[in-house]
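The record is passed on directly below:
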Amino acid sequence: MYSTLTYSTHSSKKCKQNSWSEQYIFRRAIAARFGRVFHLPIARRVREVLLDTIDDRMRVLEVGAGDRRMGALLGQRRRAVVYQSMDIDTQGEHDYRTLAEIHCEFDCVFALEVIEHLRFDEIAEWLRELRRLLKPGGRLLLSTPNTFYPPAYLRDASHRTPLCYDELGGLLEAAGLRVRRIVRIYHDPVWRNFLRRFAFGWLFRLIGIDFARQIVVVAQRPAD
């Protein structure tokens, strides 16, 4: 849906990466708090989690907004929300082309199916940039393919970095955010839902494969 160029901050600033040992500590802490992937709650669609996260009258920014369809959704369901978008695709009408040019703060920033297109060594800086754009107490929502459902990641050649739910949560915490919610996204017809979740759920857990295609993580910038 988006060009890989969408995700560049176009900034020459380089942020220091956390060491591998630090990353591992953050990741283990997330796993301890939220449990195995099979313990994570399920939502039917990403937009449900988004609407739960965004209150009316919030000022929100979508990063990698593409066709701005989520802005249209918010306009219908959260009519008092002030929505802005960032995307470098010149074919779309967006408020910003880079993160570096944004100098205001938002109540919520969200990026759907974006982070997996970044190289791993770009992610820490990108997350810190998103944190910079949040007001104290502001919320960040990210979605990414569920690595426990391999086709969700492997079917797109532009994907660069597969991130497990605990790894993504650890990266967010390392960037100075507090993870509040992690949700799996799964929506199928009733008969298939029953087979995958209940009839064969034990088998999926046994072999370490999930049926949910996406992960959504909601984090918050601590109040100053």
Confidence is low (pLDDT under 50) at residues 1-15. The first strand starts at residue 42 and ends at 43. The helical segments are 20-34, 46-53, 69-77, 120-132, 150-154, 165-174, 190-199, 201-207.
